[in-house]
Amino acid sequence: MANSKYEYVKGFEQNDSLLPQTWIVIQVDGRGFTRFSQAHAFKKPNDMQALFLMNDCAKAVLEDISDVVFCYGVSDEYSFVLRRTCTLYQRHASKLLSLVVSLFSASYAMKWTQFFPETELQYAATFDGRAVCYPSESILRDYLSWRQVDCHINNQYNTCFWKLVESGMSTTEAQDTLKGTTADVKNNLLFEKFNINYNNLPQIFRKGSIVYRKQVEEVGKKENGEVIKRLRMRIVVEHEDIIRDGFWTAHPYILSVARSKQQQAHPPSPAAKPQLSLSLR
Amino acid sequence: MANSKYEYVKGFEQNDSLLPQTWIVIQVDGRGFTRFSQAHAFKKPNDMQALFLMNDCAKAVLEDISDVVFCYGVSDEYSFVLRRTCTLYQRHASKLLSLVVSLFSASYAMKWTQFFPETELQYAATFDGRAVCYPSESILRDYLSWRQVDCHINNQYNTCFWKLVESGMSTTEAQDTLKGTTADVKNNLLFEKFNINYNNLPQIFRKGSIVYRKQVEEVGKKENGEVIKRLRMRIVVEHEDIIRDGFWTAHPYILSVARSKQQQAHPPSPAAKPQLSLSLR
Amino acid sequence: MANSKYEYVKGFEQNDSLLPQTWIVIQVDGRGFTRFSQAHAFKKPNDMQALFLMNDCAKAVLEDISDVVFCYGVSDEYSFVLRRTCTLYQRHASKLLSLVVSLFSASYAMKWTQFFPETELQYAATFDGRAVCYPSESILRDYLSWRQVDCHINNQYNTCFWKLVESGMSTTEAQDTLKGTTADVKNNLLFEKFNINYNNLPQIFRKGSIVYRKQVEEVGKKENGEVIKRLRMRIVVEHEDIIRDGFWTAHPYILSVARSKQQQAHPPSPAAKPQLSLSLR
Amino acid sequence: MANSKYEYVKGFEQNDSLLPQTWIVIQVDGRGFTRFSQAHAFKKPNDMQALFLMNDCAKAVLEDISDVVFCYGVSDEYSFVLRRTCTLYQRHASKLLSLVVSLFSASYAMKWTQFFPETELQYAATFDGRAVCYPSESILRDYLSWRQVDCHINNQYNTCFWKLVESGMSTTEAQDTLKGTTADVKNNLLFEKFNINYNNLPQIFRKGSIVYRKQVEEVGKKENGEVIKRLRMRIVVEHEDIIRDGFWTAHPYILSVARSKQQQAHPPSPAAKPQLSLSLR
After folding, report:
1. Where is each tRNAHis guanylyltransferase catalytic domain found (chains A, B, C, D) (predicted)?
2. pLDDT per position as a tens digit, A3-30
3. Which domains are delineated in chain B?
């Protein structure tokens, strides 16, 4: 074959398989979103439509990649959790990363008009990403808690900051006013100066967004009138606390792994895919 | 800071800097493009509009990332060469890879209507990618030659295959007819059976596409009538042979690195950027 | 500083930190030990003195590196388990690997005369190695079980093989005789042909060797005659079954990690080191 | 096979092949040699016997591994250059690193008595190491220059320091005296205060040591009296300047690679090994 003379260059590709049996998180992050949000007149400190668009892109990723079991988004970033036993693309970091980033970025461009029907997309929004392994469920949950605490801290700060700017301060004055203040001070400032109860702000701003396959009960009727209940998985977008145990104990199936250890090291056979619908009388 | 309790999770990110002073090639590859091209009724064996769209996406990447010095595309794949001295994102593989993939994928979705005004985009085209280092210019050129030889081999095969199918063969019969045939036999088949001179097919099909910043001379006039010539860099899309030396000796500036070794190991200062325009009397 | 001109070369070192919070196993393997064992007339299939020497080298590693919590050896290979929370050398794979290999290899040369007083060391025994991460205790135990099962399989085979050779067969004939035989067949062969009950062979041959810090009770007397009992850690070499749970439930402290998660991500302070001696009345 | 249940653990080994066609440098570094040199009463600032021992260990590595083409040593560190086309152990970093470290460490223990017949080895000298790739000969030479400049700077400082201490200063006073002084000031201090011309100190102290296969001419006689000259490779230890071009132009074969690019990506066949002896009339 004429090509064999050059084919040796394939030997320069390096193996980048991620450690088996660890949770993979793929984090995508808006690139230059300060400029992007200004160019498209996003509302400050949070633009609801922009968040809805991000959530819809995350849904597209979850729908496409069955190994993605949970997504958490805040502002212009989104984290995708791949199940511990994922063997997609032999766990090659480049493949997994580029697939998620590609899906997310293309979806953002495609879905733009749906969420911003009156604003023309000036240029492509782009996202960079990384893939990180977490060896245990407990550390994975700490990662997710880290992002949600960050969401809260940033949102509280930004809410104060933009209220101060709206009230006439320069951005520098607003920064100086907030420098080193505690959460309590910021809450008081919002309440006393702007009559805002922080805890009444929309959950989506304070908690960020989660996207996952939720186990829901569907009720139907057979032709003979008999009532049927089925458990079905439905993709949902919610804004729950994911730091405390409550959410996870209510939805244990999200991070559970039914398959045995030996199977996990090999690609799951189609039959091994969780069969989640069942009939109840 | 309330977040510090969880911040330890940042320690799980692993450093993935690519070896300094090597040529970085980022290759993006259409995912499931057989299905995608059917869903959008691409012409076989080559759809000119689909190739133009790919080329325009590559241009968008070249325009955005100044360290990309050369791009080569064929079918649903594109390779981006980053200069040997690139220090963008400290050469982190994930960052560079995700940036290119994101730009390319978002551009594809955004520019679709421009190239396919009468075909609705059914779903997002997605691309996976990888980043590979080549330690010398000679090996980098072998990589590019490998891709261009592949373009030729595949195009010749596909041209024969689809002509046979158009002429009434089943796809299996067409495959059997071509199995193990040499280039000469395929050329004869095209000529004798279909009256096609392979070498007269469009260059873009036979050579693929290259995108780069080309040094061109601009001629203007001063107000006093004096003629001015300037060298300018202009982004071009061409379909040249890049295997032989001719192209590279005609455009030595593409792969040249003016800066000294010590500087190369550090981020280039703005002043170090090549000043390419010069006035001639 | 005159050296700065060349110091940029430090930038080519790549970060090879192992994923935090995973068990690190460093495996060392004799290089060319077939030849080495012939050159030094090792007994076949097992040379007790050679195994004792290996075990003593493992002890030297355990003594030197406090993060090594368990060692398992068989034939010319040894595995060293570093605690999950190890932060020695920031978990750099090269550093950890080279340190263990260096200690082991140097000890082998130094201790040779002690175990082979009448055999001159012809040339240096060398070992290659690798570092592997296991994300959970359960997978780590599977690794150790894998090695111990291997020990058993190889020892059973080798015992048969060398008995057959001693009895007059050529090595090829012995291989052919054993090809594809089950464990039962091999046991019968030993018993019926050579009157050997496999299960009566020394444990060290059948189980390999383990080295660890064992919790033992020391009894002493105060000056006033009062009896004192203390728990102390003492390095021991044993030949136990480590596949079943028994050993691990009897010695839970070997793999236990007392420190909390957040601390684990940072180098342990001296005070955090486990205090293992305690007085009992 | 009974073992298959556990064999999945092999999947946790990660591929660590070094980038093809780059120069590999394996650097080994004494661990805790300040203490080791005190425990064995090494002379200060340089112990000639200790350096000879290091050089002899480097020779052992060069003799054993044919892909090692050059070694440079100073104080308790040694660098081993593996040829760009090396494919030993598929260029796995762990294998190459552990092999060199093992050979070096074992040799140090074995050869100790030969160089220190009257000093008992108290405990094993250990070395850690790392493997680094350099993409071009020019950068490789910068690495070697870096080490030799370091040798000079350290030796000049240490010579001054120990002379001051011998003359009665405390170590702190000696440090303060030398702090921030230029090379000229140090040279003057040695000359005026201690009557030492720095440039007359042994080359081994000022330049470090190089070990390589040197092309030498052997003259012999045939039985019929005819004179024969042969080029032979002989391992030598020298103390030359390797920063300037002189050494390298005098010995171009050290870093030269005769084989063609395509061959280089594959393991060299025995026939491809350089045939270096030739007969001259």
Report:
1. 6-135
2. 679 999 999 999 999 999 999 999 999 9
3. 18-207 (3.30.70.3000)
